[in-house]
Amino acid sequence: MIKIGQLRHRFVETIPDSIEPGVLYVSMEYATAAHRCCCGCGEEVVTPFSPAQWQMSFNGDAVSLHPSIGNWNLRCRSHYVIRDSRVIDAPKWTKKQIEAGRRRDKDARTKYLAGASSMANVSGSIEKPVEPSCLARAMARFRSAIGSR
Hints:
Structural class: alpha+beta
Largest sheet: 4 strands, mixed
Number of helices: 2
Strand content: 25-35%
Helix content: 25-40%
Strand order of the largest sheet: 1-2-3-4
Number of strands: 8
Radius of gyration: 16 Å
Shape: globular
Distance between the termini: 38 Å
């Protein structure tokens, strides 16, 4: 059951030591977000951004994370979606669904890292893939929103 139905976003360079409930801290510098679990248990939830993990979008007013947040390693085992800064309760998953999701996530990370590694081999140095990422587009929107105020 979700107790926190709305998150205020706060763009920060680094995630602070003390994380307030109801706040989604977003570090573009480290491509990561963090918040306290929205079920109210108080556990810290960290979501790293990458094509193989979470993607963050910012529309100038609200933040969304995709895919859902499944806190399978926490005692609460909460599951929710953050869309337009609103927290939407999602169905509980069975152990079988969790195992399948973990395999899918591991395969996606392995495939993504293999692609990043092959890009480094082609250029002779470690570089980010040439194609624009969700993170780069989000950062451009953020800079544009800041500049227009």
